[in-house]
Amino acid sequence: MKIRRADRLVDMTHYLLEHPRELVSLNFFAERYETAKSSISEDLAIVRRVYKTRGTGDLKTYPGAAGGVYYTPLMGQEEAEEFVKGICEAVSDESRVLPGGYVYLSDLLGRPDVLRATGRLLTTQYANQEIDAVMTAATKGIPLAQAVANELNVPFVIVRDDAKVTEGSMISVNYLTGSSKRVEKMALSKRSLRSGARVLIVDDFMKAGGTVQGMQTLVREFGGEVVGTAVFAEGRSNVRLIEDYTSLLHIDTSLDGSSSIKVSDGNYLERIYKK
Amino acid sequence: MKIRRADRLVDMTHYLLEHPRELVSLNFFAERYETAKSSISEDLAIVRRVYKTRGTGDLKTYPGAAGGVYYTPLMGQEEAEEFVKGICEAVSDESRVLPGGYVYLSDLLGRPDVLRATGRLLTTQYANQEIDAVMTAATKGIPLAQAVANELNVPFVIVRDDAKVTEGSMISVNYLTGSSKRVEKMALSKRSLRSGARVLIVDDFMKAGGTVQGMQTLVREFGGEVVGTAVFAEGRSNVRLIEDYTSLLHIDTSLDGSSSIKVSDGNYLERIYKK
């Protein structure tokens, strides 16, 4: 049964949102809706126009037999600035400061709306780059990694600080925590990453960057390549073990037991939208 | 500027997908598109028709000044059966069996497509129930909890086996692991759950159910109420500490070192679609 344009647009929007960064052939839609490819092209032009106006994504159409449509989720500058501003305000709250200058962020990193927006924002930087997997360290990085992987439509893998019976053979590396100079260990299941994989590293919080550096080593141990490193928040640190990263927030707390907290933009907005 | 129906349908579909189980007033859409509410109602009828045909969700419209539209993600029986069958086949693989009869599932639980579908499937059972939060135990339950919370549009909270410096004050409980009869401890940040919260417990794998029982105790310690318990897979167990749960898969492996594995449907499909 031929399906009307209005119905096609609803279904197509839904379908593309669930299949980001994946080439969908026009034939697939033509068969799904029993409709000529020329009509499908017109439909896609409408979807593209709406996404462009809202700044929420880009739709590219590739002609030819092997062609199709490719949807890339994006966040426009205005929405990005507003989102980061909102997060800054939510974090600038003295009741979040814990003994030792740690900051409570688990509520934000457990909110689907925050995670969805963060995922779309962090993938904007990698709109034109091929990524095969997202890597993070257990426990608090997981929700972010999943949110980013969801927009990239690639798997995410979880690095752990111990070997677990449910992970099978693991490859482990030692790394130096940047702040306290302790030697720690992290491990990843051997079967979770293939050789040659292009990996995006994601984490919730970075101080000196020891954990991130450990993950970079681990990617290389697997014969993979680090495409980039994105963290939700960076803290104050005297040493910085890695140079090439982006952060949404910069959080500054004191170690002297006071609950003062200063939150400002990280380097993400500057790096992505203003270059 | 007035916006055309075709464009409205694309944007509205996108908007509703990002705001499930939330009452959106018709005025909101009327203002967003500078369009009469009567046209918005016609748009929504189209969206409802498509979702109903595909079995991917339900759209309810409530009339009146305080009314609006409410989108509930669902998975129809046919899609659910096909999905569970696919997962069963993927898990029925002797190379997944690890020493001790454990089963490697981390690849599936790191795939956005599997997680999205699992989230939509598991929330179908709770289409008409109020849920305030999803709870899971670190580490492997987190991706599932996030996927379910995303469809329910509520926060998820992570129970841990130790107190972390980034979680602030925590409430802990002791619990008995069902299989080995050891006493373990689990803890949740005090600020992560409000009193009276209606909580859905989600986990990746359940044997005797000790962890789930511990989480039930924890919910009660917070003055909350357990709405239900949903696990991805249940394993064979001589004891079963909890009765009321649903599982997508039943996985049977042997403890004698052989790598045989038997995977069948859990009780979910039977409970939800065939009663």
Structure description:
The structure is a homodimer of 275-residue chains. Chain A is an alpha/beta fold and 275 residues long. Chain A folds into 2 domains: 69 residues, Arc Repressor Mutant, subunit A (Orthogonal Bundle), CATH 1.10.10; 197 residues, Rossmann fold. Chain A contains 8 helices and 13 strands. In chain A, the strands form 4 sheets. Chain A has a 6-stranded mixed sheet with strand order 7-6-10-11-12-13, with helices on both faces. In chain A, strand 8 and strand 9 form a beta hairpin. In chain A, helix 1 crosses helix 3, helix 2 packs across helix 3 and helix 5 packs across helix 6. The termini of chain A are far apart. The model of chain A has no long low-confidence stretch (mean pLDDT 95).
